[in-house]
Write a structure and sequence with these properties.
The structure holds two protein chains of two kinds. Chain A has helices at residues 13-27, 55-66, 87-96, 111-116, 134-147, 166-177, 208-212, 235-242, 246-249, 272-275, 282-301; strands at residues 44-49, 70-75, 101-106, 123-128, 155-159, 181-185, 202-205, 217-220, 257-259. By secondary structure, chain A is of the alpha/beta class. In chain A, the strands form two sheets. Chain A has a five-stranded parallel β-sheet. Chain A has a four-stranded parallel β-sheet with strand order 2-1-3-4. In chain A, helix 1 packs across helix 5, helix 1 crosses helix 11 (282-301) and helix 2 (55-66) crosses helix 11. By secondary structure, chain B is α/β, with parallel strands linked by helices. Helix content of chain B is 31%, strand content 23%. Chain B has 14 helices and 18 strands. Chain B has helices spanning 75-84, 103-116, 139-145, 160-172, 184-187, 196-201, 208-225, 237-248, 259-263, 285-297, 312-315, 332-341, 348-355, 357-363, and strands spanning 3-13, 18-27, 30-35, 44-47, 52-55, 57-62, 87-92, 120-123, 150-151, 177-179, 192-193, 205-206, 229-231, 253-257, 302-303, 378-388, 407-417, 420-424. In chain B, the strands form four sheets. In chain B, strands 1, 2, 3, 4, 5, 16, 17 and 18 form an eight-stranded mixed β-sheet that branches. In chain B, helix 2 packs parallel to helix 3, helix 4 crosses helix 7 and helix 8 packs parallel to helix 10. Classes of the chains: A alpha/beta, B alpha/beta. Chains A and B meet through helix 4 of A and helix 6 of B.
Chain lengths: 303, 426
Amino acid sequence: MGIGLLGIESLDRAEIEAYLTRAKAFQSHGGSDFKKLDTLRGKMLVNLFFENSTRTRTSFEIAAKRLGADTISIASSGSSVSKGESLVDTLNTLAAMRPHAIVMRHAASGAPHFLARHLDTPIINAGDGMHEHPTQALLDALTILDHKPALEGLRVAIIGDIIHSRVARSNVHLLSKFGVNVVLCGPAPMLPVHLAKLAEGVTLTHDIREAIDGADVIMMLRVQLERQHETPFPPGDYFRFYGLRPEHLKLTRPDTIVMHPGPINRGREISSEVADSQHSVILNQVENGVAVRMAVLEKVMGA
Amino acid sequence: MSRLCIKNGRVMDPASGHDAVADIVVENGRIVAIGPNLDAAGAEIFDATGAIVAPGFIDMHVHLREPGFEHSETIETGGRAAAAGGFTSVCCMPNTSPVNDSAVVTTYIIERARRFSPVNVFPIGAITKGSNGEELAAIGAMKQAGIVAISDDGRPVMNARVMRRAMESAKAFNIPVINHCEDLHLSAGGDMHEGFESTRLGLRGIPACSEDVMVARDILLAEVTGARYHVAHISARHSVEMVRFAKMKGLSVTTEVCPHHFTLADSDIQPFDSNYKMKPPLRSCFDVEAVTEGLANGAIEVIATDHAPHPGSEKMQEFERCPFGITGLETAIGLSLEQLVHTGRVSLMRMIEMFTVNPDRVLTLGKGRLTVGGEADITIFDTDRTWTFDLNKSQSKSRNSPFHGREFRGGQRAAIVAGKIVWSAS
């Protein structure tokens, strides 16, 4: 089995810190005058996206190119997956072309973990179903550290459709390892009680005001309609009870930051005023995505 | 005249309470004598010294996949796997293609079994046509053709009125109704037990209450109709409590548990390995304890495997795409000894009872006892020999088991059907 990056849960604090330190070094490469590095020259990365993605796929591609690697991106609709090929066969076919790593996004939880057991090529998880999205959690941590001196002791509220969110799970695992108090908030059907045991320092609430009270960081999540088999909460009531609006920001501190993994749905989970406010660091997150993915690719493919 | 003498084993027969070292002499498929130091002149000798000699084990819940899914299993390969697991009789569920909802299909299965299966095969007929849960199947005609129970296993009867009518009909034809208890609205989309583990892994949950609410409904209907009602593969602790309550009320309610449900909890799942995916799912450690306790206190009286073969091509997929079910025939005795007898939770005699006379009491097959003059279906097993389960040597056509490489203390030695040794450990 190749050493890739499947999730945050199994990483220890030192491994996470190593990624963040490298990513910080790569942040300065974001300017328009940067020079392409040759760290990964002659290496090939396959980007395999079975689910739609704009920012994750693009930023993996940019990260690979900045490190000098060759990249190939495949979307499931344009591949033999749509001809009925099984996932294992698709991956075996790609692996036979000897890429140095495969970045993979899939709608099924555990799909990359299942493949990693049968493949030698390192796999980087770019989001598996409702399970993990490790590079998102790393870029979120990097973004928080751009605005706060340390993670320890912070209070982070994650609000929205938690049950369906891989971003929430990866963030909970990461933040908890650094002693962050994480408050998860959402409508009851999207907030199963078992989440409280996911990691140390996690609490649950159904009240958005309680969640943001004293929060250093507010992370808003999109309602993942594509993963819901039912309507667990009346859509008309969602913004009223769980949408982040300007009046909420009055309850927070001036230095509270508002994050969102994107894509944002203005008027559903976040109001336009908040998304565009001084508190919002949403575009900063996108920018950090490239730096974090450079750090991950360097670690996985660089050896 | 064929003659077989099983020498010097510890003969244990729960129905009569017999428990002593003895020989058993079999002639022309029937037991002619049970006792110490019998004359074995001219007989083939099976040396059972140090082993347990018991009535032939019955697995009242298997999927043989024939007709229709012969790439997964056939009556022949499933029958061989049963024999290799120490079983002499199996009851096969009707979710074949076509569904066993008519006397024609029942007769086909019985004929195929007579020709190809080394063990006795008793078909279970569908409750409803096509197991669609709407219109009752030809229960009477199937009974005449040889079914021993009705069940829409895998496709629970969601309509309570249909279930009531099925129970009334089954009572009239004197066969039990077996239900796979799962409220499909509560379990919709689920891949594993709903709890901490499913939340952690980001998999959709099958809540225990999806089993409980249907067990509750069915027990109430069993009281209304007076039918003999059997809960298939019980897994949830409240369901066990309710079955115990129904028994206390004197209702004809029985239940079975699968070895994997008293062996593994959801926390034992190898993440995203589909060999741990079945219905009902592996539940919490509290449920594992509850079904084990249910076996010990009598709430649960039968051990059945729910042997559900699936080919590798179907199991080698994303977890949520894989079909439900694992094979179980060849690991049932080993797991029962490991989890129940060696731990002291259940006596050896009681374990044998749950594989023999108890399933016979549910189904009235006329099996599960060692009696002079009776048919010589005999299971021989030992309780201390160490062996390792090698999936690659399984007699089943499929390889979907989480127990590959597991080391057992004690297991099957031989299966004898109508006086013939159909399988023995090499």
